[in-house]
Write a structure and sequence with these properties.
By secondary structure, the protein is an alpha+beta fold. It contains three helices and six strands. The longest helix has 35 residues.
Length: 146
């Protein structure tokens, strides 16, 4: 199961790297588009177009920053030792789903990448195999922790 955790980690990292690459590429394209606009006699239209491109660049810049933060967090969690209790870096198999306690990403393949600060992460933190937590009216039983 340890290799499964490594595979999940590598897959999540790969997804984030692709997101980062695409966001950086889109940022460059938006910047080129903004900078290549020439001022026309319709000045307001020109300014509106430049403003729209600037907003897109700001959004992409935030995506780059957030993705870099997530990659750094994943790298920090990569070599943490396994624990008998749920903590950051744990791969938690329950009777319903499998959760990688790492970054708040959502579902990838057959697991959910969730943050320890998420509502479910808070409930799972410190729990052991066999423990149960209640989340939105569902009882979740922890089967294993890697």
């Amino acid at each position: 199961m340890k290799s499964k955790k490594s595979e999940i980690h590598a897959n999540l990292r790969s997804i984030l790297e692709k997101t980062l690459e695409e966001a950086r590429r889109e940022y460059v394209l938006a910047k080129e588009s903004r900078d290549s606009d020439t001022k026309s006699s319709a000045g307001d239209k020109f300014e509106t177009g430049r403003e729209m491109m600037q907003r897109e660049m700001d959004k992409l810049s935030a995506l780059v920053d957030n993705t870099l933060y997530s990659l750094n967090k994943l790298d920090r969690l990569a070599n943490l030792p396994s624990s008998s209790v749920v903590a950051e870096g744990s791969l938690v198999e329950t009777d319903q789903e499998t959760y990688y306690i790492s970054i708040g990403y959502g579902k990838t393949d057959a697991i959910y990448a969730i943050s320890i600060e998420s509502p479910l992460g808070v409930e799972l933190k410190g729990k052991r195999e066999g423990d149960r937590v209640e989340m939105r009216g569902r009882i979740i039983t922890i089967k294993s922790i890697i």
